[in-house]
Structures are given as structure tokens and as C-alpha cells.
Amino acid sequence: MRLQRISYENFRNHRFLTFKPSAGITLLYGPNGSGKTSLLEGIHFCALTKGFLSTTDNESLSFSKDYFVLDSCFYDENENSLTVKISYTKEKEKQIIVNNSEIKPFSRHIGTIPCITFFPQEIVIVNGAPAERRRFIDNAICQTDRRYLDDLLAYRRVLHQRNALLSQLYDKKLVHDDTLSLWTENLSRLAASIVHTRIQFIDAFFYQFKELYARLSYHEHPQITYRCSLGKIKDKSSVDELYSLFLAKFEETEKQEILRAQTMTGPHRDDLHFLMNEKEIKKYASQGQMRTFLIALKLSLHRFFYEILGEKPLCLLDDVFSELDATRTADIFNILDTFGQSIITSAENKQHPNMTALSMEYLKNSQEK
After folding, report:
1. Residue 43: enclosing H or E segment and its boundaries?
2. What's the rounded Cα separation, in Å, for the pair 282 and 224?
3. Looking at the 3D structure of the chain, how many domains does it have?
4. Which residue among 75, 210, 232, 287 is least enclosed by CB atoms within 10 Å?
5. Which uninterrupted H or E stretch holds 216?
6. For 225-240, what is the mean pLDDT?
7. Is the peptide bond between 105 and the residue preceding it cis, with omega within 30 degrees of 0?
8. Where residue 5 sits, what CATH number does that domain have?
């Protein structure tokens, strides 16, 4: 997938701007606050329907403005064009138009433009709470598996309803009947499917990750394992086996769940375990090791997506070279040379063959009105 052009209107610190990256590696460089990251976030909106910095769309508005518009054009591997226009106003909800047709729900657009990202704030995937690692694995699988995305959305709805029922049972607003069993059965089926897909993903993804990590760090041995709230499960457990395990677990913990008014087991409680040389990364690794691990996680998704989709994903890499030495920077460039289109930001200009470097000052002065 390749971005041909994107126009920004009232998006963060860009009042009017058009950006046309090269088909290979494009480096956007300039001082902090010059709008480099905002350019990447606009592209992220067009690919994945939301920003990566903002918790709400409203935060992406330019100061004192009440609307923003992003207008973009992409080309796939077969040179078919795809236009994406996103508009947002304070009065109305966000609107997404793809090839002149409005998209609803927005989840229908996920996976249309495969995209991988690296942003320094994402270091929490490695050293933060389990929710950050669940978000990583969910975002990765959703771009390649529509059924998984549907299951995940359904699971969240059923989980919300089941927790509401548990709360009512705790407050004795309802007499315990078969309603909880019905919600439990639905949740167990969805949970089994989600966990099964996640384990399959880790199985396939780790081979790509291990190979790429060796190109960035030659003397360390990484591991990724899936921690399930069911406890230890067989690596090759079927969906039906997982479904039976979830039903048994919910029966075992039903009284506790009513007392706590919350569902205690399920994929919303699971985690990924990252190890380096058999030690947990978040406890023992240096900042440099954690950053390298994160970069390897993100870059490995490129090959994983390409093998499944037959489409090279777009790479958006924000400040990826910060804190890296010249050797590791060269290693990353060598990897990106095979990736297709990559858009990178940096505080400083970098030198690399077949790379287009653009100064933010030049870009803004030549195009903004």
C-alpha cells in the first residue's frame, strides 16, 4: 500500500498543507513542535480511522478551529486507487468517505489500508500495563482478520452486559436466574475464539520477530508467550476445548464474580510475556533494549501482514532513530529498504541512499497559506 498524497486542513498545527511522500523512504526532519508527528497522525487517521496521540477527535483540531478535514489518495500493489476523506466538526460526528462512499461503522475500514506504526509513547507495550500489550495484539490481528475484529467487538458488548448483570445480582436488584448462564455461554464462545486466534498469531508472528530481532541485536534471545487468565493451557487447544475450559472456570468463580460485580476471566484479563535471555524485559532490560524490542515488534508486523494480505503495509515511524547508535540506525535503514513505502520523522537530517529527505520548514513555507 502506498500513499500518493494527503491534504490537511485545520489538523493540529497544520492550517493548510499537502504532503506527497516518495514511493520508498521519506524522512521528515525538523525541530520539536514543527508538525512532523501530526503529519503521521493524519495518515494514521486515514488508515485506521483514529489518531494515535488523541483520546478524542476534538483534540486534533487546530487551535480555535471547529472542524478539520483530511483528504488522501492511496494505491495498492495492483495500482488501484483508494481515496479516503475524513471530516470532523464539533457539532457532528466524524465522517469517513472511501471512494466516494460513506463508511459505517468505522470498523469496516480496518484492514483496507494495512499500516504499521512506531511512536516513542508506545514503549508502554513493553514496560507498561497488560492492557497495552492486549491493545498491540488486538490491533495487529484486526488488520488481517475480519472475523477476529467482529468477535472482539461482540465480546466487549457481551462483557459489558454480563458485568451489568453481575452488579445487579450483587445489589440484589435481581433474583439469580438463567440469564447469567446465557451471558456466560455467549461470553465463553467469544472468549474461546479470541484466545485461540491470539495464540495462533503468537505462534506465526514469533518466527518473523525472532529473525528480524537477530538483525538488530546479535547476542540476545527474545521470547514471547501468551498468559491466559484460564491458567496454563495446551498450546494446541482447540476452540471447543477452550470453550469448555471457560465454562468450567466461570462456574467455579461465579460466586466471587457476583461479590466483585465483575467478570474475572477472559481475554480482557490476558497478557503477553516478553522475555530476553529468559528474564522478563520490563523488570531487567535497559531502556535501549526495551526500545529495540519495541522496534523489532513493530517492524516484524510488516512481513507478517505481507504474507497474509499480499500487500506491503505502509510504515509510519516517529522519531525511531532517537537514542540509537549509527550501527543500529543503519540496520533499520537496511530493513526498511525492502519494505516499500516508509515515512519517518527525525529531529535531524539523515543520509541514506534512495531516501527522500524533506525539511518541515521547507514543506510548510512552500505550501501553507
Report:
1. helix 36-48
2. 13
3. 2
4. 232
5. helix 179-216
6. 90
7. yes
8. 3.40.50.300
How far lies 263's CA from each of 154, 176, 224, 255, in Å?
A: 15, 16, 26, 11
Using an 8 Å Cβ cutoff, are 25 and 355 in contact?
Answer: yes
Share of the chain above pLDDT 90, in %: 71
In this structure, the answer to whether residues 176 and 130 fall within a common structural domain is yes
Q: What pLDDT shows up at residue 325?
A: 83
Indicate if 294 and 185 belong to the same structural domain. yes
Give the rounded percent of residues in the chain with a pLDDT score beyond 70.
97
Which run of H or of E encompasses 303? helix 287-309
Of 364, 367, 343, nearest in space to 22 by CA: 343
- All three cell numbers of 114: 494495512
CB-CB neighbours of 268 under 10 Å: 17
Q: Are residues 242 and 323 in the same domain?
A: no
| Residues forming a β-bridge with 273 | 225
- Alpha-carbon distances, residue 250 vs 166, 186, 265 (angstroms): 12, 12, 7
Residue 303 CB contacts under 8 Å (≥ 6 apart), including other chains:
208, 212
What is the pLDDT, as a whole number, of residue 260?
Answer: 92
User: Contact, 86 vs 45, CB < 8 A?
Assistant: yes
**Boundary of a domain, candidates 269, 288, 310:** 310
Residue owning grid cell 530476553:
276
Residue finishing a domain among 310, 325, 349: 310
pLDDT at 177: 66
Average pLDDT (327-338) is 91
How far apart CA 207 and CA 73 sit, in angstroms, is: 33
Write out the residue range of the structural domain in which residue 35 sits. Answer: 1-114+312-369
At residue 117's C-alpha, the angle toward residues 111 and 120, to 5°, is 150
pLDDT at 175: 61
Cell reading at 293: 524490542
